[in-house]
Amino acid sequence: MKKPSVLLIYTGGTIGMMQDPKTGVLKPFNFKALTKQIPELQKFDIILSSISFEKPIDSSNMSPETWIELAEIIKSNYDLYNGFVILHGSDTMAFTASALSFMLQNLGKPVILTGSQLPIGMIRTDGKENLITAIEIAAAQKNNKPIVKEVCVYFEYKLHRGNRTLKYNSAHFDAFKSPNYPALAEAGVNIDYKTNYFLKPSKKQFSIQTQLDNDVVVLKLFPGLSKKITLAILNIPEIKGVIIETFGAGNASTQLWFIDALKTAINKGIIIYNVTQCPEGKVIQGMYETSSHLKKIGVISGQDITFESAIAKLMFVLGQKLSLEKSKKLLETNLVGEISE
């Protein structure tokens, strides 16, 4: 049987850093010497190749342009490898995983994002286990077909759907959670794949969709949010979409000025996308009086979508330049497992 092949794509981030023994300064290490740094990789019966960004970037500088670059790298190498592992800084990993889940259309191979809280060159690093297992998952096959066929995040023994993850902890190794969807796999002595939670594979041909529109803004509600600030945000020139982070199950102020401000924006063709501030649970517009008015004026419910996925999906949908009604319909529709049926 032909050996499975995996392409590592290093974008930057903590996982790819080595500590200079003389100066103590962290710097990106050379991926050509990867097996020297992680000798365990030599035990894999896998063909391993790597691509590194010419200038590795901190994940705080992640942008739609980088998402497009990643999508194009995967497209150009899609037929050459069985799976892909993207090494990425953890701070914005959930945003990138969400964006790629929409951009990589009809994906039939694993794209696994991973990283670490400590650099691989440090003794107590979590990077080695994360990288080794991410590679193993990316190479895993059954009946000569990939086991995983979607964009995922692997971190601290758990594989999550990429567009369901969020970073919730910056101090511990278990940095990511998927509050509204079960883990797709758990790594112990063996890797236990929860195949009943996997996306149903598409029979269509793989392609990428790289048109994104980031003319979007976030309005996070809090007690005391002023009228002048709300109006300033909703009247930003050329704005096309607003994610409104509401309370609980999608609740917001019932003050007349606030409702009128949202209604005016909607009447101008601006999409208002309702996402709860709660990490777990979902928006149910109309469940309480404080959300029924949002539904009446045309605010779109994000249901149980994560904030990170909502940002990526809104950019993706707006980038298609569809009619307003079609755009709203897509935002309410489960496209790639980002919201529950």
In short:
With 341 residues, this protein is an alpha/beta fold. Helix content is 27%, strand content 21%. The chain folds into two domains: 5-208, Rossmann fold, CATH 3.40.50.1170; 216-332, Rossmann fold (3-Layer(aba) Sandwich).
Question: Can you describe this structure?
Answer:
The structure is a single chain. It is built from nine helices and 20 strands. The strands form six sheets. An eight-stranded mixed sheet has the order 4-1-5-7-10-11-14-15, with helices on both faces. A four-stranded parallel sheet has the order 17-18-19-20, sandwiched between helices. A two-stranded antiparallel sheet has the order 2-3. The mean pLDDT is 91. β17, α5 and β18 (241-246) form a beta-alpha-beta unit. It has helices at residues 34-37, 64-77, 93-103, 127-139, 227-234, 256-267, 289-297, 307-319, 324-332, and strands at 5-10, 17-19, 26-28, 47-52, 83-87, 104-105, 111-114, 141-142, 145-146, 151-155, 158-161, 166-167, 176-177, 185-187, 191-193, 207-208, 216-220, 241-246, 271-276, 300-301. The protein has two domains: 5-208, 3-Layer(aba) Sandwich (Rossmann fold); 216-332, Rossmann fold (3-Layer(aba) Sandwich), CATH 3.40.50.40. The two termini are 39 Å apart. With 341 residues, it is an alpha/beta fold.
Give the name of the CATH superfamily of the largest domain.
Answer: L-asparaginase, N-terminal domain
> At the first level of CATH, what is the class of the largest domain?
Alpha Beta
- Spatially, the strands of the biggest sheet line up as 4-1-5-7-10-11-14-15
Unreliable stretches (pLDDT < 50, length at least 5) are none
N- and C-termini, Cα separation: 39 Å
Using only C-alpha atoms, the radius of gyration works out to 21 Å
Q: What's the SSE pattern?
A: EEEHEHEHEEHEEEEEEEEEEHEHEHEHH
CATH topology of the largest domain: Rossmann fold
Overall shape: it is: globular
What number is the mean pLDDT? 91
Number of helices: 9
- Strand proportion, as a percent range, falls in 15-25%
In total, the number of strands is 20
Q: Give the helix/strand class.
A: alpha/beta
Biggest sheet statistics:
8 strands, mixed
CATH architecture annotation of the largest domain:
3-Layer(aba) Sandwich
User: Helicity range of the residues?
Assistant: 25-40%
Number of domains: 2
